[in-house]
Amino acid sequence: MAGSKKKFYYTVAKVLHWIAGFIIAFNLLSGWRLGGFELEHRVILLMIHSGIGVTIFGLMLLRWWWRRRNNLYTPPRWWKRPSMLLQWIFYPLLLIQPLLGVALASVIDYEVRAFGLINFSALAADDKAMEQLAFQLHGGLALLLIVLVLVHGIERSRKAFTND
Fold it and tell me: Would the pLDDT of 12 be above 90?
């Protein structure tokens, strides 16, 4: 029974991994295009983008909780395994990225509402200097995450074709 329970826990973790992966990839890649739209379209797209960001934040908290609760992916000396280390780097970065998005939305000079409901713009006054800083941090971390996702994909693909 214990073995089938553990298999179930890993299956749930894998499903959450792939759901998160697709949502994160979509948001990372679509975020680069937002600046090219006129304001009226950008506001609508930002509503979707910020809503997905909130979803990613919640999903990453759920994944982290699920892994910790069921003691998954914690082999001895995990910090010496590049794939494990990379996974543990992703978690804090994928929690920080939506927070940076909220910071950006709170100081931008137009209204940003996640899901059309959560008014991030009401959190702080418009501030051009803070907007530029938050924009650079949010964009820079997005670029880092894209690189890490590619490294993760290459590393996992390499493992699939070798006996390491």
Answer: yes
